[in-house]
Amino acid sequence: MSLDDYDTPTAAPVAGPSTEGGEEGLTAEEALEDETQDFRMFSKFNKSAHVSAQTIRKGEKDFEQVGTRKQEDALEQSRQAMHDVLSYTRVHHPNNWTRAWYFPDWWADWNDDGDDQRPEKLGESGERKPYAHVRDRVVLLEGPSVASNNLGRTPTGQPKDRPARGMDWLLPEEALFLVERGSLDLWWPTRGIEDIFPAAGQSKKDRGGDDADNDEDEYEMGFPLSLQAAYSLLIGEDGERGKISLQKFQVFSNLKRAGYNVLRAPPPQRQPFPESPPPTTLWQWFSSLIPSLERQPRPFGPLLQPGIYRSYVPIYRQLAIIPRHQPSPEPSSRWGMKDPFAIHYHIWKAAGKWSKLRHPPPDFYLAVVDAQETDVPSLEEITALVDATPPAPHKPEWRAMGPRMLAPRLKHGYRHVLVAVVDHGIINYMRFAEGTFVDEPQFERMDGSITEREAARLLAAAAAAAGDWLAK
Amino acid sequence: MANFEVTATPPAGRATGQAVTSPVSEAVDVPASATAPRPAKPTSTYLPVPVRTFPLPSFYPNNPVSLLHLAYAWLSQVFFPPAAEPSVVHIGIWDPETRSVRVDDPKSIRVLWEQGFFGKGSLSRSEPNWLKRELSRRGAAKPMSVSEQRTESRREARRVAKWERAKAELEALEQQRLEEAGLHAKPTEEDRGEIVVVSQRHEPKAPVGPAELLALPNSLASLVLRHALTSTPLETKPPVGPAELLALPNSLVPKCDQRGPATASPQPNGLANNGASQLSNGHALHGLTNGVSGHVPKASASHENKHASQLNGATNQPNGVLPPRSEGSNDSESVPALNGAPTKLARRKSVRFSPTVESTTFQHHDPPSPGHSSGSRPRTTCTVTADEVASPAPESTSQVSVPEVPLEVQNKEHYQLAPIEAFFLVFALGSLSVVDPVTLAPIPTESLLTLFRAYSYFPPLDTNASLACLRPQDPFLVEYAVYHHFRSLGWVPRHGIKFGVDLLLYERGPAWNHSHLGAIILPSFSHQLWKEVDHQEPKRTWSWLMGVNRVLAHVLKGLVLVYVDIPPPSVFERAMEKGGISAALKEYTVREVMVRRFSVNRNR
């Protein structure tokens, strides 16, 4: 490492002003994320083995054997620590394990939108429950599970005699994620849902009968599916009901494993583009009649009128002829999102109180695109995508920090959206943000220092002149 | 970071937190340890654009003198009004061959550089300082006064530091080995765990093997040199870095022969390389293995050196070049000569076609004008170097002997403005006039626009034939829209091809701080009329975007995608008829999108 001729500046963590915002890590630091796993985290859980967190170091790397015993010992210690970590006995607790049934067509004719409009969908505090995606839910979770804390959904508003009422249904990506983790057993039903989960009326009697001879007819209702079968049932093309594309599942799984809370985004609502309202007040009407007194710039310049200027602000005002984009809370264009540049997932950071039904607005909005089939988004695509997210300007105190925080402010942007670019299973997350260059004009800074300097010079000249006059 | 222009940016923002206010020259990030002088603070001649302002002093009610001051300033400006700004119109010559606008007047050059950082010197990285560099190279000016030289010295310091670090690690490794050998020699009652404890007390850095040292460029040779130096009594200077050895010029062959293995590689004669390089390898390995144990057998080294020189000389002879043979060479003579060599001799390339033709010598810093060689160096380099070799004192050889007469150096550098910069100066500020290269008559702005648009294609479009071939999506217009957009916000955009982007955005200018943003221009055709003719915008792949972003992230810059929405031809033409280019530019919309990688692991 140290003899590497290419001295990478990213090797040392950079202490810069932009490290202050948690989310605003420096780009150079991000390069560190691809490092190997730090086993110190695991060794915390592994109390029995005496693995020191210092044993496994990150960073320096030996590229060859140098023949010292010290190196051999260090290698051996690292090996041992990794072995201890990996040999940790993993236990599947019964309450982490659950069974689920695959019923692909149970909600096929459900109207999600109609369901969403119903007044009883509103919670007690008046807020709307998150969009349920009931039509896409194809896996019925049997019994309560740890997974159901933040996955799955119970469709509400069903009649009492409907089978499997009040149980959690999983989306395909949720089910497949749990299957892959080993905490879900996906079963293929050989009987109808009415037999397996009878409606409320007959449930007592039937359940009792089932419990009595549980051993014999465990496989009477269905049989377990392999992981391959689960993949083939749940992975499909984009837009297929009850399935999910491989790219989206990979992104979902990656984010869940990284500890985020992820929910499918509701289908995009076309917000009506605000038409510019006609002038309403009398004064506006009057002023619209008067032709603007602003002098039109000369056709072929110079834009700058010759003259004496007290400040750079009027100079730069004359130069501003190209329309600029001003970030505003209203969407700036009438373009609508088109797949694949549409928001597919809402993402919350792991911290904080979060439940699948009650949560703050998402921290991030994410679109999933394929690296081979799509290109860098065009103006329409990226504008529509960014406009679909709410404004998330930088912290106000950044503004007070002046030019020192200029670059972080600009990089943060007004709105931002994540795009997960999936290339055959390798995911690269890109963050696109609406630029705020208009809010950061540089020419206002130019006058300050120059004025002071000029003022000092003029003051000296004035004093000298006054002195001369007095001397006379 | 070592090999390309990436060094133009700081290794981190960590270097100077106050970098915004403290002036650093572009591409210069002086590490705290380096003793290179800080560049001079930009003086008050630096303005954002070549337009002066005359601000009135502020009035403080509690200070009556300030009222006097204000009145004085105002009255003086009323009675003796300064010339209307822009008061000076500079002259630039359109240069169709290089597709740039050339400025020759030194005063104009200074103004255009200091007041808005337009353009670049043709022989410099950005600021036109070839003359300064040349003077300091010849010893007339204070050395290390221009940014290129500061960069070079910084690189050199880094090289030496790396070499020192590698050496320290090797020594630590050797120490470790000796220690363990000593522990082995003891009767070993102590078990293995205690050894570990003992060895951990020293906590050296990661031990690095000798073979890795071998992988360093020329490190073998430098090791050899190092040992040779330590073995000589004349240890007056620190060892030079390996890359400096690499940079030794070709014409040093006579000297190289004395050192033999260390510098035999850059020989012009391909024939000589086989024998010499094999020999050098053998010798270097030999030196390394010896160096590990701490001894260099002088006799064998010098013997091999002589052998090498004879070999080289023998292969040289068929080419008709007679290198001066200094027969009685030994270490004490050749080492100081080598020491002084990098600072003393300039790079030269000599090409000979036949013995009768006089050799022509080019200097490294010369402009590419084959007719003129700067005659400051004697052409008979061989004899000169032989003389220098013979001089024994290292101090005297390492200094350039400066003639007392003042140097008359003709400035061979001119200043060049890119078309977008020139057009901004002409069209927006009116402080430049572009003249025709033949007639020297000023080109009107309208024709200049047509010219620049035509020349933004290659080969340039023939605008005499018809103007119909010009379109609103001409590269010049798109680029200019973006350039004007950022200029009118007070930014200083400069060409960013060295970083793989279209523009670099500086906050005040490259003399103050490094740029934090690189901009990529993406033309966009979203108007309904474009859709009707089904105009496809150029597609950019994701891998391209990731590549650009990676490069910029490595130099701590952010990426901005600048989308330019281009008006359809009908709209553009109508605006051109109505209000000229001023109206037509209003039809272009510029929108910035900031791009960054998002790290899942760091945002939880």
TrEMBL record, chain A:
Residues 83-188 form the tRNA-splicing endonuclease subunit Sen54 N-terminal domain. This is tRNA-splicing endonuclease subunit Sen54 N-terminal domain-containing protein. GO terms for biological process: tRNA-type intron splice site recognition and cleavage. Residues 1-25, 145-164 are annotated as: Disordered. The lineage of its organism: Eukaryota, Fungi, Dikarya, Ascomycota, Pezizomycotina. The keyword tRNA processing applies. The keyword Secreted does not apply. It comes from Echria macrotheca. Belongs to the SEN54 family.
Automatic annotation (TrEMBL), chain B:
GO terms for biological process: tRNA-type intron splice site recognition and cleavage. It is an enzyme of class 4 (lyase). The active site is at residues 506, 514, 557. Residues 1-44, 134-157, 254-402 are annotated as: Disordered. One of its GO terms (cellular component) is tRNA-intron endonuclease complex. This is tRNA-intron lyase. Belongs to the tRNA-intron endonuclease family. Transmembrane segments: none annotated. One of its GO terms (molecular function) is nucleic acid binding. Residues 476-565 form the tRNA intron endonuclease catalytic domain.
